[in-house]
Amino acid sequence: MKRGELLGSLEHIILLALVRLDGGAHGMIVRREIEERTGRNISIGAVYATLERLEAKGYVSSFTGEPTPQRGGRAKRLFRVEAAGKRALEVSEQTIRSMTAGLKDRWGTI
Amino acid sequence: MSRSSPPTLACWLLETVVPTPYREAILGDLIEEYTLRTESTSRFTASRWFWSQTCRSVPSMVWSSLRSRDCLMSMSIAMSVYIVMEILAYAADLTISKWVAPQPTTHVILAPIIFLTTTAIGGCVAARFRPGATIVLALMVMITVAISIDLKVCTIPVPWWYEFGFLTLGPLAVIITPRLFGRSKQQGAVT
């Protein structure tokens, strides 16, 4: 992760969902996990567009699963977080923590 | 459409706009979820969910497609097919007006046939290379017909519906013919 380059909000959430799902998950599972935990009803297109971006940055990697009849004979694309993705999450977490440090008292007055 | 088959038009839309690397995965995910939803809710509710996902996914996918080279490739294919289509139409038009039927009235009757035949062939050829190219080609046909109408390229007086027919049926022929002849690479329905 380049200095000063932060994860976008959706990128951050999707990476966290992938870490939670551990081992490899496809887009719909990621979408469901986010919906269950945050209540955000995001589209499958937005999930895959973000995953594509994360893959291009080297934060996640993907592999193709077996096609199944339930999917109309289409193969799954499974994603997992790479070491660079975990580092990016750490950097984002640290940045948020240092920016929010000591601000909790002020939130009530904003 | 069987109980577990998702809306065909929505599938076609996704097949058309979703970039190649994720097309299979997105459609597969949606079909799998749709099948699960039809088991717990009504088909109408599941179809509404499928359509909502499709409509909300299209903008992200179009943007993603523009960022990748997929859209550029579709545009190149559409442009190449369009040039060949225009050459064919011009040759047919010239042959008819010179040798077969030089009278203007016959030309007015034959022009839509030539136009629709070339656009239909163009649509099939474009869909064979890439389903997304048909949408671009349909847009190109619509724009050029609109410009031709505006510039009054046709010197023979014709009723408004004649020109309107070119404007609507041309792009429709590009999109619908590949589906009718099964040339498009879609695998929309679950069997």
Task: Report what the structure shows.
The complex is a heterodimer of chains A (about 110) and B (about 190). With about 110 residues, chain A is mainly alpha-helical. Chain A has a single domain (about 10-65, about 75-100), classed as Winged helix-like DNA-binding domain superfamily/Winged helix DNA-binding domain (Arc Repressor Mutant, subunit A, Orthogonal Bundle), CATH 1.10.10. Chain A contains five helices and two strands. Chain A has helices at about 10-20, 25-40, 45-55, 85-100, 105, and strands at about 60-65, 75-80. Chain A has a two-stranded antiparallel sheet with strand order 1-2. The mean pLDDT of chain A is about 90. With about 190 residues, chain B is an all-alpha fold. Chain B folds into two domains: about 10-65, no CATH class; about 70-180, no CATH class. Chain B has helices at about 10-15, 20-40, 45-65, 70-100, 105-130, 130-150, 160-180. Residues about 185-190 of chain B have low confidence and may be disordered. At the A-B interface, helix 3 of A face helix 2 and helix 3 of B.
